[in-house]
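2024-03-11 09:14:02 INFO worker-7 job=invfold-0412 stage=load source=structure_tokens
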């Protein structure tokens, strides 16, 4: 058996009572609380980012293909969406799904003469309803008939409240075109993303074929294509690869560019959490240094005796390093229990609520990123273990004669 490790274990057994025991407990709590705070912060941050991104992806896709135009209107120029990308998506290994869409601005009126400007987003049978389903709070999605077009629409909670309309009610939509056209549409469902600035305040979902009829488009025309990727991190590579196969009059835009303010804000959150990690590691490291110094001072006589018996500085330092690593390991275990326990309680019971109008969600989200938890454990262990070398350097300066007489 390693002699320094054996002595370290004996020291740990003897220090289960008294002042040394308190120091050991404090060290374990410091490491545990630090790691728990970091785990909770990272899992909440990733949950927050994932929730906001999924809300945006469900409405926009990862990439959009539209007809190139200098017009900044929400109403797109028609394009033939029966391209190879749409007909044979399996030829593109990074594509999960592609669906057609079109936007049409209009004005909504109810029986109480309430008026609201809206954007009707028309979608077709290829629309991924399952991806959008998590945003539905009442009713159901639009039913697409085999012939003609559906008069059903899905409106947001905000629009529903403004118009004082509920599922099953009819709304009258006046579309901006020459000549103006009017449609009576039935509310089949209500959605809520809490992204009012981008969707909830003015977007309602309906049948693409209605917009095709209003614009006198053929069935092969739409405003654009929404492309969903298997891995969102491949957006740039996928956009470049798709652009190589598309006509020059088509424009490809990533969701990161379209909603750049949101994604920059989410990246800012990552930087803030990384700064928090750095601060916590500094605090934990400083405290561990102080605690190991106290342990060294308490064992000064033992250090002097070991030196008198021929023990080298490296051998004696390894005793306290093993002792410190033992404390760090117990602290990491405590930190994982506390951190993951708090995250589980929040994930299971949603104890901490949020204002959805400010945070885009009604509760603090948790994302179980086990890879991040593992990296945090390893990173914390390595950093704090490396810091242990600093206080043990004091051992080299201890004189064995004075140490044995130390009281």
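2024-03-11 09:14:09 INFO worker-7 stage=emit residues=407
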């Amino acid at each position: 058996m390693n002699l320094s490790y054996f002595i370290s274990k004996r020291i740990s057994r003897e220090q289960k009572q008294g002042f040394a025991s308190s120091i050991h407990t404090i060290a374990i709590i410091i490491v545990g609380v630090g790691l728990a705070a970091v785990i909770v912060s990272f899992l909440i941050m990733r949950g927050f980012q994932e929730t906001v991104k999924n809300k945006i992806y469900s409405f926009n896709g990862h990439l959009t293909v539209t007809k190139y135009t200098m017009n900044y209107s929400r109403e797109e120029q028609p394009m033939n969406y029966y391209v190879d990308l749409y007909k044979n998506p399996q030829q593109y290994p990074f594509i999960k799904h592609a669906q057609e869409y079109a936007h049409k601005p209009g004005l909504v009126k109810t029986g109480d003469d309430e008026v609201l400007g809206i954007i009707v987003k028309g979608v077709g049978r290829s629309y991924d309803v399952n991806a959008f389903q998590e945003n539905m709070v009442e009713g159901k999605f639009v039913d697409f008939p085999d012939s003609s077009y559906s008069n059903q629409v899905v409106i947001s909670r905000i629009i529903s409240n403004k118009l004082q309309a509920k599922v099953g009610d009819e709304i009258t939509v006046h579309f901006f075109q020459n000549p103006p056209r009017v449609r009576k549409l039935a509310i089949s469902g209500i959605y809520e993303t809490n992204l009012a600035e981008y969707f909830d305040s003015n977007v309602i979902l309906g049948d693409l074929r209605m917009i095709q009829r209003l614009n006198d488009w053929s069935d092969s025309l739409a405003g654009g294509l929404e492309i969903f990727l298997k891995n969102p991190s491949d957006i740039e590579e996928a956009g470049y690869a798709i652009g190589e196969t598309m006509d020059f009059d088509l424009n490809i835009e990533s969701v990161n560019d379209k909603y750049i303010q949101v994604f920059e804000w989410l990246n800012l959150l990552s930087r803030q959490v990384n700064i928090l990690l750095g601060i916590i590691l500094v605090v934990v490291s400083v405290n561990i240094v102080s605690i190991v110094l106290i342990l060294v001072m308490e064992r000064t006589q033992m250090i002097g005796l070991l030196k008198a018996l021929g023990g080298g500085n490296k051998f004696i330092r390894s005793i306290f390093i093993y002792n410190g690593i033992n404390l760090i390991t117990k602290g990491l275990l405590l930190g994982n229990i506390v951190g993951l326990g708090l995250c589980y309680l929040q994930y299971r019971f949603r104890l901490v609520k949020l204002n959805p109008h400010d945070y885009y969600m009604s509760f603090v989200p948790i994302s179980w990123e086990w890879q991040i938890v593992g990296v945090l454990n390893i990173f914390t262990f390595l950093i704090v273990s490396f810091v242990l070398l600093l206080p043990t350097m004091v051992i080299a300066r201890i004189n064995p004669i004075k140490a044995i007489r130390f009281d």
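2024-03-11 09:14:09 INFO worker-7 stage=report msg="The longest strand covers residues 95-109."
2024-03-11 09:14:10 INFO worker-7 job finished
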